[in-house]
């Protein structure tokens, strides 16, 4: 019976680990800073929930396109190659070359900014960080809320400030998009960008869950012969 207990314990552990990994990823669990309300009281800002769905390829593709036009001018994504985009995201190579490769002409290259980060540091007062792993660092919801949290502030060098990252050095680069689209469309666009960033931070996350399912199924199936074998071995001992 001892062996059986071990098998049960092992299976339980494997399932628990699988579940923890899934929920940890879904929740993110980061706060989005604090702000002062009208009475001057410190309030915690709750992150908005980012519509991240790594099975929604259309959304990731739209996000890739917007990321390259609106973000990659300043930010690098140095762990991602352009070739990965057309292979994994089913974007035709010609389209990647024509519309997405704004910083190089080699598809095997990583996404690096055209402008020297050190110079940018001098211009903006803070160098734009690499965004390859940003959603893992801050959480999807933090990044989503941050991008939604820009507001006009004439006191700042670029005329904009941010609730989540007060006195931010990044300009409100989506300002034109914000005033030229509906509120829903604007949110969807930012959701798509974050979805792309989540894919970028962990391109295999979706596949990993599928593998996880099959591994658990395999373990469950393996349990049957192991159980019978166990019975067989102990039959004569007792
Ligand atoms: C004009 C240059 C510029 C562009 C374009 C730009 N950023 Fe930034 N970004 C910055 C700078 C500079 C910072 C550093 C801000 C600071 O630390 O105060 C920053 C910071 C950030 C941060 C916060 C990093 C952190 O963890 O502290 C995120 C997230 C981010 N940018 C995302 C984006 C996205 C997404 C886009 C495209 C929609 C974008 N940025 C476009 C300059 C830029």
Explain how this protein is built:
The protein contains ten helices and six strands, in the order H-E-E-H-E-H-H-E-H-H-H-E-E-H-H-H. The protein is mainly alpha-helical. It folds into two domains: 46-202, Cytochrome Bc1 Complex, Chain D, domain 2; 204-237. The strands form three sheets. It has a two-stranded antiparallel ribbon with strand order 1-2. The chain is extended, with a radius of gyration of 24 Å. The protein starts with a helix and ends with a helix. Mean pLDDT is 85; it is low at 20-29. Bound molecules: heme C (HEC). Heme C (HEC) binds next to helix 6 and helix 7. Heme C binds next to helix 6 and helix 7.
Write a compact overview of the structure shown.
The protein is mostly helical and 238 residues long. Helices cover 56% and strands 8% of the residues. The protein folds into two domains: 46-202, Cytochrome c-like domain (Cytochrome Bc1 Complex, Chain D, domain 2, Orthogonal Bundle); 204-237.
Q: Which percent band covers the strand fraction?
A: 5-15%
Q: Could you give the count of β-strands?
A: 6
How is the largest sheet built, in terms of strand order? 1-2
Any idea what the radius of gyration is? Answer: 24 Å
SSE order, one letter for each helix or strand: HEEHEHHEHHHEEHHH
What overall form do the CA principal axes indicate?
A: extended
CATH class placement of the largest domain: Mainly Alpha
Q: What's the CATH superfamily of the largest domain, by name?
A: Cytochrome c-like domain
Averaged pLDDT: 85
Provide the helix percentage: 55-70%
Q: In CATH terms, what is the architecture of the largest domain?
A: Orthogonal Bundle
Largest sheet: 2 strands, antiparallel
How many distinct folded domains? 2
CATH topology (level 3) name of the largest domain:
Cytochrome Bc1 Complex, Chain D, domain 2
Number of helices: 10
How many angstroms separate the termini? 11 Å
